[in-house]
C-alpha cells in the first residue's frame, strides 16, 4: 500500500501541475483523448494487470484506449504503432519487445506529434519519459536472499531471459549480490526465455548437469514456475528465487515450496505513473521527469499471504 500511495502521489502531483498549465498553454482537441498502448506480450498476468489499470484510468478520464499485443515480434510491434498513428492517438505508451528495434516506431510517433512514454522497459529514440522498476535492485534482492538462505555456501545457477534492458539489469544485480559471498559459485546460466515450458526443460538439464546445485535465480516468475516444476520433479532440495510478484508465484511461496522469494514489481503503479507523465505533457507541463524509477519489494513466506499487485 505504501508503494501505491507513493507512486499515485507522484502521478497526482504531475497531473495537478499539468492542469494548472493547461488553461494558458494547451487547448484541448476536438473529441476524446485517445491513448495507445503496445505490449511486448499479453500472455502474462503481469501485463494483464497493467492493462486493467490502464483501462481503469482511461475510464476516469473519458479517454479511448487502443491496446495491441506484439507477441515478442518487433516487426509486429512497429506495424501496430503505425496502425495506432493512423487512428490519431494522442499518447503512446510503449512496452517494447526490443528496446533498440522499436526506435523507428518511436521516431514515427514523435514525427506525428504524439507523446511517447516507455513503460516497464525503455526504448531507444526520443521517448518523452520512461517509467520502470528498479530492475538491478530486484535482481540484487533476490540473489542476496538466495545466498543468505544457503548460508553463503553452494552452487547456484541463473535462469536468464530475453536480452532486453530490464532482464540484463536483473542479471547484473544478481551477480553483484552473489559476488559478495565467497562460498557461492555461479555454475550455470541458461536462457529460459521467460516461458514456463521452455524453462522446465532448461532447468531439468541444469539439475542433471549439476548434481550439487543448491539454488536457482529466475529473471521472472513465469520462468520460475517452470523451474519449480523441474525442481519438484527431481526430488532435489534446490531453492528458487525470482522477480515479479505474480499471483501464482506468491501462492507457491506461501505454500512452502522450493520457491522461497520473489522481488515484486508494481505493474499497476508503473502504467498509472506512465500515463501521468504523458498527461502532464499533453496538458502543457513545461518540465516532466525523463525517468521515474519504481521501487521493488521482497515477497517471502512472511508476507506472501498478504501481498497482491
> How far apart lie the N and C ends?
10 Å
How does the helix and strand content classify structurally? alpha/beta
Write the H/E string, N to C: HEHEHEHEEHEHEHEHEHEHEE
Q: Give a count of the beta strands, DSSP E runs of length 2 or more.
A: 12
Topology:
Elements (H helix, E strand, L loop, with lengths): L1 H24 L8 E6 L5 H17 L2 E6 L4 H13 L4 E4 L8 H9 L3 E5 L9 E5 L1 H15 L3 E8 L4 H14 L4 E9 L4 H14 L3 E6 L2 H14 L4 E6 L2 H8 L4 E6 L2 H16 L8 E4 L2 E4 L9
Provide tags for this entry.
disordered N terminus; 22% strand; 12 strands; 309 residues; alpha/beta; 10 helices; 6-stranded parallel sheet
Report on the structure:
- With 309 residues, the protein is of the alpha/beta class.
- 47% of the residues lie in helices and 22% in strands.
- It contains ten helices and twelve strands.
- The protein has helices at 2-25, 45-61, 74-86, 103-111, 135-149, 165-178, 196-209, 221-234, 247-254, 267-282; strands at 34-39, 64-69, 91-94, 115-119, 129-133, 153-160, 183-191, 213-218, 239-244, 259-264, 291-294, 297-300.
- Strands 2-1-3-4-5-11 form a six-stranded parallel β-sheet, sandwiched between helices. A six-stranded mixed β-sheet has the order 7-6-8-9-10-12, with helices on both faces.
- Strand 6, helix 6 and strand 7 form a beta-alpha-beta unit.
- Helix 5 (135-149) packs parallel to helix 6 and helix 7 (196-209) packs across helix 8 (221-234).
- The protein is elongated and about 65 Å long.
- Residues 1-27 have low confidence and may be disordered.
Amino acid at each position: 500500500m505504501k508503494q501505491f500511495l507513493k507512486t499515485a502521489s507522484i502521478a497526482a502531483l504531475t497531473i495537478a501541475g499539468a492542469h494548472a498549465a493547461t488553461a494558458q498553454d494547451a487547448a484541448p482537441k476536438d473529441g476524446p483523448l485517445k491513448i495507445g498502448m503496445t505490449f511486448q506480450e499479453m500472455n502474462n498476468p503481469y501485463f494483464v494487470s497493467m492493462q486493467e489499470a490502464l483501462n481503469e484510468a482511461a475510464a476516469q478520464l473519458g479517454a479511448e484506449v487502443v491496446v495491441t499485443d506484439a507477441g515478442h515480434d518487433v516487426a509486429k510491434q512497429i506495424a501496430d504503432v503505425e496502425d495506432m498513428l493512423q487512428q490519431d492517438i494522442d499518447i503512446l505508451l510503449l512496452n517494447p519487445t526490443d528496446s533498440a528495434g522499436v526506435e523507428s516506431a518511436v521516431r514515427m510517433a514523435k514525427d506525428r506529434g504524439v507523446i511517447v512514454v516507455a513503460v516497464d522497459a525503455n526504448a531507444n529514440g526520443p521517448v518523452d519519459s520512461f517509467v520502470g522498476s528498479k530492475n538491478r535492485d530486484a535482481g540484487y534482492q533476490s540473489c542476496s536472499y538466495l545466498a543468505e538462505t544457503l548460508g553463503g555456501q553452494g552452487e547456484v545457477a541463473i535462469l536468464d531471459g530475453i536480452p532486453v534492458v530490464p532482464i540484463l539489469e536483473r542479471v547484473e544485480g544478481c551477480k553483484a549480490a552473489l559476488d559478495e559471498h565467497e562460498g557461492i559459485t555461479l555454475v550455470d546460466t541458461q536462457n529460459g526465455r521467460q516461458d514456463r515450458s521452455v524453462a522446465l526443460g532448461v532447468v531439468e538439464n541444469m539439475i542433471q548437469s549439476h548434481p550439487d546445485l543448491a539454488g536457482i535465480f529466475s529473471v521472472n516468475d513465469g520462468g520460475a514456475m517452470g523451474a519449480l516444476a523441474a525442481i519438484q520433479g527431481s526430488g532435489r532440495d534446490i531453492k528458487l528465487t525470482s522477480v515479479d510478484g505474480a499471483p501464482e508465484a506468491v501462492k507457491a511461496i506461501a505454500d512452502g515450496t522450493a520457491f522461497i522469494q520473489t522481488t515484486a514489481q508494481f505493474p499497476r503503479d508503473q502504467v498509472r505513473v506512465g500515463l501521468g507523465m504523458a498527461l502532464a505533457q499533453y496538458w502543457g507541463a513545461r518540465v516532466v521527469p525523463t525517468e521515474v524509477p519504481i521501487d521493488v519489494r521482497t515477497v517471502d513466506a512472511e508476507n506472501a499471504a498478504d501481498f497482491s499487485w
